[in-house]
Structures
1.
Amino acid sequence: MDLQLKTINQINGNTNNVKTDCKLKVNHDDNGNLKVTAIKHGMSVITTILFVAGENAGAGLLALPSTLNKSGWWGLPLMVMIIFDSAVAASLIGKCWLILEERWPQEYQLNCRNPYPEIGKMAFGPRMKSMVTIMLQVTLIGTSAVLLLVCAQLSSDLIDRNHSLSYGLWILIIAFGICPFMWLGTPVEFWPAAAIALGTSTIAVLLLLFEIGRDLASTSYDQLPIASEVNLSTISLAFGSFMFASGGTGPFPTYQNDMRDKSKWTRAVVIGFTVLFFLLTPLPIMGYLAYGSTVSTNIIHSIPIGMSRDIVAILMAGHLFFAFLLMINPAVQEIEDKFNVPHTFNWKRVVIRVTMLFLIVFICESIPRFGKILDLIGGSTMNCLAYIFPPLFYIRLCSMKNPSWPERKISTVNKLYFYKIVLIGVIGGICSTVSATLAILGPNAFVLPCYLDLNCTNE
């Protein structure tokens, strides 16, 4: 007979209330003895690829042509390097989790709601766990705010062309629609959201490339738009934007923890980032060539008004809606773990997730220009989680010794490369964070929050 049991430990007489993603099949062997077999279930490699690529190919993608305009052609190798290094870092953070399961199986082989902070704890101690937790929350909340802002912007453009409703009201409308979907549990329960997110963004990018290509074909060589002035500040801001577009590593340990076979995480990362590379690279190049300094922060606003633009807006709005669910889930799981909320649907889950949504809405209403949040988050906390921490944690865990642990060695070449990622992350992160902060606080950049200016706009 089949029984859905809370934990393997309970079968053995242990009443420790820990949840696992195992279904236990209980029967008897030939000698009449009780036999318990754990049947694993969870996300497959293909589903994980959808999460890895689908979560990243969103709001950051739409801002890439504007970002390349800020940095000039210097930004192209910078973008390619960030995508490649982010893929390496994402693979390393997955290897870190496998090390934790190998060395401390009783603590980590069962389901864990906050794997990234636990990696930080085992690498550098409790203070690092607290630091990772704070950065993870800031990153996921800030990124979710960007997704909500752009989704509200696109929905307003589609449905309310005369802008009879304010932008601030559209933020509330989209948040109200998202709210019940947030009550789902872990990514395993809403994997179709990842498939929809990646599918809609892929079709949208193809349509965008077609429309941009038409504009580019109608422009002669001597009529190509002039690019904006490039300086250290604009390149620093571009670093944060590129990081935002490909550095969504914060939730990755949670996705890996929901996999059926966690050892296949690197395979999912390689394929997911390959898909991401072919989605991210052509768009900024063609958008930069076609529009130059006139390109909008949201590339959709730069292509001609018509059916294609409306279809792209619909697809990207759908993508952002579901990407929001993927991004915010690890943040709320972390909070629920702090309050010992059960892993089933209950009123505590609803209260926590609705409260989180209210916080994100407040951020959106306070800073309605999504590009500013994007640059700041990308260059600061997201940079740490996606670029700096994974190689540092991996090097540290591999250097730790214990007679009962398998020895792990890192070649000198690999170690130098990992430290290169850390160094670029530190330098680029400091420059990007300072530039983004100055841009937000600049005298010509400030706009009233939507709850003070009822006619607030996203431009």
2.
Amino acid sequence: MFFATVLANLGGGQEATRRVAAPGRDDRRLVVEEGAAMSDPLWNVYVHQRDWPLERRWAVGCFNGDATDNDDELREAVWTAPDRSRMTTTGGEVFEVTVAPGGRPDRVVSAGW
């Protein structure tokens, strides 16, 4: 994950392209940031809990779209419940992540590395 962050910063940063509110919760959302590391497309997915200035942010997924078959591009990032998110790649790989009451995901997933 550290390597992906460094590469994203070298490529000019990322832009938030999607924000998805958790069902039944107005204080939690998935934020997808799309960018590039050099010429490789990248998608980073974060859980944001609360609003500024008390906002907390946790990484939940990192997807590198430069895989040789392009099956690791992020196709979808959605909530399946107020405490569970699902990320799907263009190749059909599915990642489910549970989010604790405080907003912290139980793991960070990645594809294409």
3.
Amino acid sequence: MNILVWNCRGALKPSFQRNVRELTRCHNPAIFVVMETKIGGERAREITDRLPFDSAIHTETIGYAGGLWMLWNSDRVEITALANTEQEIHTVVKVRNSNSSWLFTAIYASPRVEERHVLWNNLIKVAEMHDMPWVLAGDFNEPLMDSDKFGGRAVSVSRSLLFKDCLDKCSMIDIGFSGPRFTWTNKRNIQALIQERIDRFFVNTSWCLLFPEARVVHLTRCHSDHCPVLLEMQPRVAVNRKKPFKFQTCWLSDPTFPNLVSQSWSHYPMLADAIDCFTKEAEKWNRMKFGNVFARKNNIMARLNGIQRAVAIRPSNFLLNLESELLKELDNVLNQEEKSGL
């Protein structure tokens, strides 16, 4: 089971729903937390009804700021809502076909220092009320230590100590991560560049004992200035499995497709033979016509991930410009994919 958190910087962007579906297709999260949606109320419900999840909790926005959504599929997890504020959603999670239950808290910490203090105090109060396995996840808007930031002003010692005190009182630990070091960037050139690790998962010891193989992955940042962060509770084992044949609607838009169909069926009078021929020819034809779209997208994502790892260690204007060009190229490929109905 996977949990995904992502600060999308606004859910009204035309590409938002496509991006959520793509992340869901690639990483199959049972729970998806979306932060800084800037939308609440009925409008939020209208959008989440169109996403690939059947249940949701929304917090209210503060004017045009904030907005925290927790989405899940009820056939995979049973969620009991406990309480929420503009900065937090507290729930109890029970995994279907399992005896394990644990607390899950989704976080979007306010950019305002005073309101973050309110959040830290709320979390400490929650810790005093329970001794269950517990996960905290989201955008905490506060670097914890010097190594969590590059550029700009130094990390505030007083603010980070308050954050650390909250985590200690909640018995929270960081289980590490893989992927690019920083989860947010201001996207400026090298002289003004700021990068921070502020989107995180924290867990307590009793949750670690339930899921000792769990790992956190910083995914490639490409549709926001924050990267999605993935918690794999039981990391996947790669299995080479032949995909079943699937008819693609986009094939009908290509003028050469009717000829492929007629040739496959004209050479074999028996239905079973004709179907077998069509399946083989259609798969080869699809690889030539549309397969390059998937290959290009995967190649760009891999290059972006490598660049973002490098920028976190030793940034340069060359790498930042290359990242910007690749992001534009990725948008073109995704638009092509969407128009083709892939």
